[in-house]
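Weekly structure sync - notes
Attendees: PM, LS, DV (DV joined late)
Agenda: review two folding runs queued last week.

Item 1: First target. Sequence and structure tokens pasted below for the record.
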Amino acid sequence: MTTSERIEKDTLGEVRVPTDALYGAQTQRGVENYPISGYRAFPAFIRAIVAVKKAAALANAEAGRLSPERRDAIVWACDEILGGKHHDQFVIDVFQAGAGVSFHMNANEVIANIADRKLGGALGTYAKVHPNDHVNMAQSTNDVTPTAMRLAHLELTKDLTAELDRLADALGAKAAELRDVVKPGRTHLQDAVPVTFGQEVGGWSGRVRSAAARLRAARQELCELGIGGTAAGTGLNADPRFRERVCRSLAEWYGEPIVPAKDLFQAMQSMAPFVRISSGMRTAAIELIQVCNDIRLLVSGPRTGFGELILPAVQPGSSIMPGKINPAVAEMVDQVCFQVVGNDTAVMLAAQAGQLELNVMMPEVNYAVCFSATILTNAVRQLRTRTIEGMRVDEERAKELLDASPSLLVTALSPHIGYARAAALAKRALAERRPLLDVALEEKVMPEADLRRVLDPLPMTRGGVME
């Protein structure tokens, strides 16, 4: 042993732990067993598991099982961590033993050491506050982990839904600004009837807002906590009122309608609430992918592509081509969304891999959901502030394209001259590279005043028959 280490003992024997570490033997075993990714728990999950420990200490003291002295020391330690201190002491890799035992013990040991030192003890002695006997009283990894997961996911998806709402608002404002600016509509990537930019962008806004609503509905399931089920759902070693007391505190701290789960066995066996929340993020990602791909198409060129949109220039687009500007933020959002879709697949596989009273794959579910919520929140914010809010329309380019394609306007003629004759007009206009109006006037299909009225693109965007 070197002077930079201390010796601790657990049920398997002696373990060497860094002298100044706030964690202990079981955490150290986890560090040595799982040097996998180098990724650590998301801060929201650290806060969540510590909040559970704080609420448990208060509940156990209220039940007369934990002394006021230990309660106060544990609460003080938890408040230190919740205030942002000691996060560097949560050292377990996100890919670890099933159910999250290693991370759970990491939390128990850190809290115990801080609390014990507060009461005059030395690191690793647990003279007055023990990680298992006191910090973990009336709890098990099997109910603490899924409870903390729900809390972390509530926190992270609250931020995400708020960002989706802001993006929908920004798109809605842009749609109102562009409500009368006509442009080519496209289906199958071919010219279709005219639409306005306001209608197109308004559709994006509605899609994002609906995605936020779906995700918000999915969050409701996260509010039912299985804490108090302990090892298998029976509540062994927990006071009968423990679960209500813990949930009461957590509901107050998180500002969410948190309640004890109706069925503790279901709450520990099933990953369905996490599948639903992950699915909600996947749905949002899929909508965002299409919106961003539409933006990338509409900004393409700008001379040899569509060139209808102009985005803020956020960075040079090439290391070799001077003056090139790319839709960089939209490209980033696409990549984030691809990752979210992949994370959702990982959640699905982990969720079905549980057996009997416990799903041991919870660490993977938790990491994937926290990762998705974090990167999607940040990506949505950047899309709004770095692209959508500064997005402009090249109205001259839109009109140029509108005038260049007879198929955009010819549909409005069909009720007046018939489908076959309208198709023949469009075919001739395309072949001769002439405006549809010129060819229609030449063939005298309608009086000029009527023809100009019927072929006015803006009224076409409002539906009905062009009279």
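Item 2: Second target, run right after the first with the same settings.
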Amino acid sequence: MLHVFANSGGTLRWAKEVDGGTGPLPDSVVWLDLLNPTLEELARAEALMGVKLPTREQMVEIEESSRLRITPEAVHMTVMALVWADTDQPRITPVSFVLAGGRLATIHHIDPQPFLAFRRRVTRHGFPGASGEAVLGALVEGVVERTAGVLRRVGLELDTMGSRAFRGRALPSRGENRDDTRTLKRIGHTGHLIGKANVSLASLERMLTFLARGEGWTAAKPTRRWARAALQDVTGLNQYARFLAGKVSLLLDTTLGQINVEQNEIVKIVSILTVSLFPPTLVATVYGMNFARMPEKAWVWGYPTAILLMLLSAILPLLYFKTRRWL
């Protein structure tokens, strides 16, 4: 899908009438947004930009020279954007930015939420920066803000789980149902999401460092200025993501430790009950043997005496365990 945005009196507008055409794109185009493009759409975009746009295979390469490179005609940059962060399957997807001749082309095969929000903003209100570098800055800032929002939400969720984990009770109170399996899944999902966000922030940090330095290409001063400001934000978010990763590790260790303590408590209770029930079982076994001569069988109080012996043999071990604080 090809979205075409053109300069209309100094304001960026969505040129919907040329999105699905087959002819050449007008010279007033400032931004080409290609979402999972077809070969025909790529050809139209390349004809206007005057450069070859990266393919899907080139976008997933991890070498730094492939993601950030300068050619005589254009500047090519690829970052990993966090997508589907509000679902159970967060992902990172490569997004390529190509600056050539004052125009910007973006290529991505999954639509990040900041791109969708920026297109809606341009459609409703326009964008007063009709240049490729201005659009690049707005898109990158949107990706950074989106990642910051995800990390903020993750931090609040970790605080909630941490308050439950460190409240001081090894066993749940009466009537409380604590699902340890669900808790472990939530912790694992949170750690997985933080890892994806960390990868995205690392790629953004490299790209912004590249833009802030402006080495090898004539970046405008406003571009270097917003790149330096965004770089500070990304550096802080990267540190915060590492802090959250450490918090996830601590919370996971705490949860596993509590599960282990609960299992030990259950085993201890079962063991104590087994030991306390052994003496009365022994007494009952002795008096249940079929011998001809057992004096107690002829006693008037023989049966109550046997019951009393069984009760005492069960109560005395429990009292002993209580004095030793094993119960």
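Discussion on item 2: The chain is about 60% helix and 15% strand.
Action: LS to circulate a short write-up before next sync.
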